[in-house]
From TrEMBL:
Keywords: Oxidoreductase
Protein name: 3-oxoacyl-ACP reductase
PANTHER family listed in its UniProt record: 3-OXOACYL-[ACYL-CARRIER-PROTEIN] REDUCTASE [NADH], SHORT-CHAIN DEHYDROGENASES/REDUCTASES FAMILY MEMBER
EC number: 1.1.1.100
Ketoreductase domain: residues covered: 206-381
Top-level taxon: Bacteria
Molecular function terms, GO-annotated: 3-oxoacyl-[acyl-carrier-protein] reductase (NADPH) activity
Enzyme class: oxidoreductase
Alphabetized Gene3D superfamilies for the sequence: NAD(P)-binding Rossmann-like Domain (3.40.50.720)
Entry's family note: Belongs to the short-chain dehydrogenases/reductases (SDR) family.
InterPro entries hit by this protein: KR_dom, NAD(P)-bd_dom_sf, Sc_DH/Rdtase_CS, SDR_fam
Length: 444
């Protein structure tokens, strides 16, 4: 599953076409490999807000080097700006003063993170100024180029000590295909501080349930969660039983073969997790199907099957696991939505409805949960899989280029984002829906 266009433009002939015809020129993205540092270079810090003092210590604890500025001729791998001190619109000038001199001094695939205060927690001019940060970061994400990413992280005052996990993800190559996003830490009653003994194995001792785990994105989710220390329980339909069993054997995990839309599926899953593992710490609702057709031509079974698999099953399974007390304290529920649920797609009214519903599930549960349990979702854009490889060439090319990075993502990009949500250090990350789409030009 390769990007043939990206391979072509990396050649000398391809570069001539790019230069003369103004074609997209995607930068190969850096992705994290086990044993590599989180950040290979220096992070330059700026801003004078309430987080300025804790940032150097926080980054040092992650093994990330930081500095207050750059020496002549030096380049930065990442920029982190504490904008929590901006209390009026005149104060927004500090963004230009800090970033403008540094934008041409960034290495390839750089990271930019702006930290702010949730606008809904302040008022007057400060609320206006903090909300303005969203326009700044989203626009900069479309300007930065060279495989770079830009994010805005709103940190509630009570969650100042809970930013390590999010910075580790957003500053590292793990977030290669995540850009232009707004993340909230400490929202919806969740303000627990980071408690991770080993940042190389943040899921050590955890049990993780992954539906649709036998192939594609689900397989990669299982692999990444296993890499981070979790015991994975994979779930898939009988037709995929052989692949599922092979994968789980490789990962020293467990498997459960069933149709998640079956009437007794939630109870069977709950029973299996309780009896064989004593509960579950991470629940990933990855299983999903498409049955594309314009609404005027859509049969009832195409509609009902997509809603049943993509939305009703995750809701019923989540409710059963919660009501039965199977999800352990500090547990994580993670849904897989889609950019289609945000921006819509021709021929996908059923699919988009189901994926918007996953976002609704996050919004429904986020204020109901107790015992430190959180709920979040990823919303993938164009991810290169065997399924997308079968899409007609022209349609596939448009899908891959219609984002700030001019390329499709990989299953590992979705998996890494889910692993961040799942981390023991992400207890204050609750109620978020983060797009994994290379900052797609469509949608909010």
């Amino acid at each position: 599953m390769s990007d043939r266009y990206q391979g072509f433009v990396s050649t000398s002939i391809g570069q001539l076409f790019v230069k003369n015809l103004g074609l997209p020129n995607p930068t190969p993205l850096e992705r994290w490999s086990e044993g590599a540092p989180l950040v290979d270079g220096v992070v330059v810090l700026g801003g004078q807000g309430r987080l300025a003092e804790v940032l150097p210590t926080t980054l040092d604890g992650l093994g990330i080097a930081s500095a207050a500025g750059l020496e002549d001729g030096a380049r930065a791998k990442a920029l982190v700006f504490d904008a929590t001190g901006i209390t009026d619109t005149d104060g927004l000038l500090v963004l230009q003063e800090f970033f403008t001199p540094l934008m041409r001094r960034l290495e390839t695939c750089p990271r930019v993170v702006v930290l702010g205060t949730p606008p809904e927690t302040v008022s007057g001019s400060e609320r206006i100024a903090q909300r303005a940060l969203e326009g700044f970061t989203r626009s900069l994400g479309k300007e930065i180029g060279r495989g770079g990413t830009v994010q805005l992280v709103y940190v509630a005052p009570a969650a100042d000590g809970a930013i390590s996990s999010t910075l580790a993800f957003l500053l590292s190559p793990k977030s290669a295909y995540v850009s232009g996003q707004v993340v909230r830490i400490g929202a919806h009653g969740s303000t627990s501080t980071d408690t991770v003994d080993d940042w190389t194995k943040p899921l050590a001792g955890n049990v993780a349930l992954v539906t649709g785990a036998s192939r594609g994105i689900g397989e990669e989710i299982a692999r990444v969660l296993h890499r981070d220390g979790a015991t994975v329980v994979g779930v898939d339909v009988p037709q995929a039983a052989s692949e599922l069993q092979t994968l789980m054997t490789e990962l020293d995990g467990d498997h459960l073969v069933l149709d998640i839309t079956a009437k007794d599926a939630p109870q069977r899953i709950a029973h299996h997790l309780r009896e064989h593992h004593g509960g579950v710490d991470v629940v990933v609702h990855n299983a999903g199907i498409t049955r594309d057709k314009k609404l005027a031509n859509m049969a009832e079974d195409r509609w009902s099957s997509v809603i049943a698999v993509n939305l009703t099953a995750p809701e019923l399974i989540s409710r059963e696991l919660l009501d039965a007390g199977v999800i352990n304290a500090g547990g994580r529920i993670i849904g897989v939505a889609s950019i289609a649920g945000i921006a819509g797609n021709v021929g996908q009214t059923n699919y988009a409805t189901s994926k918007a519903g996953v976002i609704g599930l996050v919004e429904s549960l986020r204020d109901e949960l107790s015992d430190g349990i959180t709920v979040n979702a990823v919303a993938p854009g164009f991810i290169i899989t065997q399924m997308t490889a079968a899409v007609p060439f022209a349609t596939r090319e448009v899908g891959q280029r219609l984002n700030a990075m001019s390329q499709g993502g990989l299953p590992v990009d979705v998996a890494e984002t889910i692993a961040w949500f799942a981390s023991a250090g992400s207890g204050a990350v609750n109620g978020n829906v983060v797009r994994v789409c290379g900052q797609m030009m469509l949608g909010a």
